[in-house]
Amino acid sequence: MESLEINTGSKKYPVMIGEHAVSLLGDYLGQLSFTKLLIITDKNVEKICLPILLGNLRSYHPCVFTAPAGEQAKSIDTYYEAMTSALENGLDRKSIIIALGGGAIGDLAGFVAATYMRGIRFIQVPTTILAHDSSVGGKTGINHRLAKNMIGAFHQPEAVFYDLSFLKSLPSEEVRSGFAEVVKHGLIGDPSFYRWLKSNIQDLGNISIGQYETMLAMGIGVKASIVAKDVMETGIRAFLNFGHTLGHAIEAEMGYGKVTHGEAVMIGMLFALEASKSEAGLEFDLESFRAWVEKLGFSASIPYGIEPVGLLKRMKQDKKAVGGTVKFVFLEEIGKPSLRDIDDSRLESLLNNFLLSKK
Predict the structure, then answer these.
(1) Which residues contact 101 (CB under 8 A, 6 or more apart)?
(2) pTM across the whole model
(3) Given 155, 248, 314, 319, which residue is catalytic?
(4) Bound how, and how many: what does the cofactor note say (predicted)?
(5) Would you say 52 is a known binding-site residue?
């Protein structure tokens, strides 16, 4: 069992990572003073993971709200329904919400907790690899039809219980989606971690519990070190969006749920790495990296039919854009990201080059 502590300056909270970590949750709750528990989960997780969680929390008699699976969980309509459930179940300011699911559920449940009665406590119980990125750091939110994650709040959890036994049920596309964010943490924060990943992970269908513990703890450690220095994303926390400017644009252009978040981000990282070579002087074996991720099952190119003009429009709507100018995360070297303005004409040229290089 791996144990980490997240320090945001104003708040510290534990992250427990290991097989059957959820068995520790009951004792943790016993140390807190609270009135009611509301578990927020989705239709897929409800079938597999919810019975295990309820078995560990039987004495607390939690109520449950079940959202649609996938990005639909982060719609305004689902948010409203979750708030209605909290009201109907009589939650008050001393109640606690538990987010049981992947990143979408963590974002939804965290935003419900952040806004219900102007803020109540919540606990993250991630069930996907992708959620190792979203379950710590306190960014919560929902989608608008025009852009992803544009409605949200910073609201830190009380604790994170990362039960690796839940990962056994993940389909291959969800494993890929989560692993992309693991790679991101290595690229932006820890060259030795990146080298460990590239040397040790050659088959996403054959990752051991020990390897999961190692890579998730190291990935969370990279994020925690950045968040501790910039909780509200006014500076270096934007480095965590490496690959996301294009990745989010691909998701939006295709329609949320048509491509997984991590698979879109991996394409975004390939683009960012290529752009970093020309714009930031990055020395990096891109072909070796591309061969590795393609071997792991990732696509290395923008999906067919998406045009640069649409992607550029989406990228200018990104949260990091200021006055319509895109702020883009480059890598100067592995472990050394930088945030720079990039004008429309240069960005469009880079996008066209990236598209042409994959034809």
Answers:
(1) 40, 41, 42, 45, 49, 73, 109, 125, 126, 127, 128, 131
(2) 0.89
(3) 248
(4) Binds 1 divalent metal cation per subunit. Can use either Co(2+) or Zn(2+).
(5) no
